[in-house]
Amino acid sequence: NPSPESTVFLADARSTHARQLTTLAADIDRVYRGIPPATVCHIPKDRSPEEFLEEYSRMFDAQQCLEMLFSSGQALIDLYPVILEGLSAKPQEIVDCQRENCIHVEDSAYVTSREASHTDDSLKKPGTFLINLLVLCHKRLLDVFGNLLSHAHLCARVATAYPNGKEPRVTVPELRVGSFVASRTSSSTMQAVLLGHVMSVLKMRSTQLRKVVEDMLGDDHDDKQSRILRLQCEVLEEDSIAKVDELEQVKNRLTNLGFPI
């Protein structure tokens, strides 16, 4: 049987991961609010390309939002393997109560049959709360990716309409990731590379999460909650794959338009 210390350690680790994921979810949601989808960009079509770009660039703080995006994405990438390892760990056995006449085993007419048979097996159950938080963070980050890609589609349309086939001049902010700062000349390329990296790694992580949950549940869990967990992980994996595929389509389209990435 596990010692009380090991039980407390597991509970503390889960609590720490829960706090980290909750904070991260709030950070990612701020990024989502800071980068609205292109559908909210209500700019008249009769504006000149220069006027459009000027007004468009004022709609959100690109530098701050992108730095927060890559920082949050890296934080999620770092947390994933730690949490997956914890979910893959062998379930703890329940330590039987050693107290005589303990109230939790009270047998009386007041106690219902369900209460009498209930065992506190929270350590045996899958980490449903952590899985939900992990899926929440990942899904919200996919929403941010979706917004970014919608802007890429919009900018591609504007670029094709630019007079005389010229390339519009766009002010690309510096990109700071940790202590590394990309110059303005290389910032756009670095953004595309980092975005592709984060999306690809998270796609791989979503597959790992689905497999861990499948192994964790096995054939012994077919209740509604277990089916919901399986479906959540399957949908997350499908959405992650779809976003990576969409990014490749955007890159190919921009390359065909003469804007290699």
| Number of separate helices | 7
Overall pLDDT confidence: 78
Strand order of the largest sheet: 1-2
Bin the strand percentage: under 5%
Element layout with pairings:
Layout: H1 4-34, H2 49-57, H3 62-88, H4 113-117, H5 128-160, E1 175-177, E2 180-182, H6 184-217, H7 224-256
Antiparallel strand pairs: 1-2
Care to describe what's here?
By secondary structure, the chain is mainly α. 66% of the residues lie in helices and 2% in strands. It contains seven helices and two strands. The chain has helices spanning 4-34, 49-57, 62-88, 113-117, 128-160, 184-217, 224-256; strands at residues 175-177, 180-182. A two-stranded antiparallel sheet has the order 1-2. Helix 3 runs parallel beside helix 6 (184-217), helix 5 (128-160) runs parallel beside helix 7 and helix 6 (184-217) runs antiparallel to helix 7 (224-256). The protein is elongated. The termini are far apart.
Features:
elongated, 2 strands, 261 residues, mainly alpha
What would a concise description of this structure say?
With 261 residues, this protein is mainly alpha-helical.
